[in-house]
Amino acid sequence: MTTEYRICTRCIMDTTDPLITFDAEGVCSHCRDYEIRAGKELYSQMDGDERLGRLVDEIKEKGKNKKYDCIIGLSGGMDSTMVAYTVKNLGLRPLAIHLDNEWDADIAVSNIENIIKRLGIEYRAVKTDWEEYKDLQLAFLKASIPNAEIPTDHAIVAKLYQTAAEEKIRYIISGGNIVTEAIMPFGWGYDAKDLKYIKAIHKRFGSGILKTFPKLTLFNWVYYTFVKKIKFIPILNYIRYNKKQATGILEKEIQWKHYGAKHFESVYTRFFQSYILPIKFTIDKRKAHFSTLINSGQMTREDAVREMEKDPYPTEKMMREDRKHVLDKLGISGDEFDAIMKQPVKTFRDYPNNYFFFYKLRVLVAFAKRIATHN
């Protein structure tokens, strides 16, 4: 573990990740891990066209006589939009699921409308119970952990699995990919699938009962993966996915609009990622996002360094408006929020969790992941 400040000579990851290591050339462990993952999972660099063709044929065959042959998540962001565009162009028949937790930015709503209209995609919006969801989000803020977005991530995955099982669909087409999001330090988050962890935080800091919140238990995950044989397909790893080129295509074909930065399609995510994380946790996720793009050849290190000189928020005005909007919507005062920001930083280890099952049993998890992601 490195104690003195260092920054990678290849990307811009540094010792704000306490678990980072560097080799003799000054290249960080994230860059080396990227090389390994890209070599194994980035099919576009190998025989991607052939693999993709076989995969599409398989999905179509398994989806015969069904209304849909795959499911996609739709947020209005770049990755999910590119997934929708790709699967339609491959001749697949997707059902799009959107989790409406009442934090969608206006531009995301407009993007989703254009996607479903211009691509002709069947669409379902899953609306959360706001009072219940608000209580859970507040609980995660009060828990002082660096990934208060876990409730959203968990609900999305749970709903995708549940819908796939209900519709008897074997394939969930995911926007997760190597070239734009392979790098993300373990210490900056925790596995969103851990329902035990979510319940523990809600029990300690929340109130009421999670009646309608979409849940994915450890048993559910094993059942969906091994019994129902539902697979997550990282489709963007099969194509030559370049963010700049994709932006041009989506803007031209479906009038998609960029929303400023990665995950800014959600107002809450924008505020959490650009304000709470840097100030309270000294975490700036742009380092990981830009470092991934450097490794995939889509950004130079010099450009990344220049971008990091800018404030995480595009403008001071947007930050102030987002702060007011988030606090008003969550029903807390400025003083209450400031008190939360001053609470000592915690990690997932401070609360009951299923870390042993998700991380210690690495062989089973790795095997399940290979099945779930079709790798």
Features:
375 residues, 5-stranded parallel sheet, 53% helix, alpha/beta, Rossmann fold, 5 strands
Query: What's the oligomerization state?
Result: single chain
Distance between the termini: 31 Å
Remind me, CATH topology of the domain at 48-263 and 348-373? Rossmann fold
Number of strands: 5
Largest sheet: 5 strands, parallel
Spans of at least 5 consecutive residues whose pLDDT stays below 50 are: none
Q: How many whole angstroms does the radius of gyration measure?
A: 20 Å
Tally of individual helices = 17
Per CATH, the class of the domain at 48-263 and 348-373 reads Alpha Beta
Q: Judging from the principal axes of the Cα atoms, what is the shape?
A: globular
Please indicate the percent range of residues in DSSP E strands (runs of 2 or more).
5-15%
What letter string, H or E per element, gives the SSE order? HHEHEHEHHEHHHEHHHHHHHH
The amount of helix comes to 40-55%
Strand order of the largest sheet: 3-2-1-4-5
CATH architecture descriptor text of the domain at 48-263 and 348-373: 3-Layer(aba) Sandwich
- The secondary-structure class comes to alpha/beta
Mean pLDDT: 92
CATH homologous superfamily classification of the domain at 48-263 and 348-373:
HUPs
Would you kindly provide a written description of the structure presented here, covering whatever features stand out?
- The protein has 17 helices and 5 strands.
- It has 375 residues and is α/β, with parallel strands linked by helices.
- It has a domain at 48-263 and 348-373: HUPs (Rossmann fold, 3-Layer(aba) Sandwich).
- A 5-stranded parallel β-sheet has the order 3-2-1-4-5, with helices on both faces.
- Strand 2 (94-100), helix 4 (106-119) and strand 3 (122-127) form a beta-alpha-beta unit.
- Helix 3 runs parallel beside helix 4 (106-119), helix 3 packs across helix 10 and helix 5 packs across helix 8 (195-205).
- It is globular.
- The mean pLDDT is 92.
